[in-house]
Amino acid sequence: MGEAHSNRPSTLKLSLLGNSVPIPPRDEHPSFQTPRTARNYEEHLYRETKRQQQQALADRRQLKQQEANSRAMLYARYKPAIDMSIEGIMANEDLPPPRKAKLIQIEKNRLHRKVSLELERLSSSIATQWQLNVFHLVGG
Known about the structure:
The protein has helices at residues 2-7, 35-91, 97-138, and strands at 12-16, 19-23. The chain is mainly α. It has one domain. Helix 2 (35-91) packs antiparallel against helix 3. The two termini are 45 Å apart.
């Protein structure tokens, strides 16, 4: 049985995006050496998983905060023009009140639509930039 192990290469290769990553055989893996090493390895994996979860949560919070900041900036940019349009509607004496209310609602919807479209455009350009950065990091 010892001869069967001697014929096997000491590491296996995993091809990931054209890069070879050595993977130790099962009996050479740290978690299979001793019970203490296995416990340490499991604790390491648990801590690493928790760290990654915390990082993902922090990243999500940061993205939400950035989106809120962008939304506030866009409302500040577009709201004055919409407010002027609404003031013009209110000042028009020829329009009946129901028509004024409908036009004001249309203007408010226009503001929300402008902000949403601009946020979507910003998000897609950020996502595209992120994909390009990852592409360059991977070596594309």
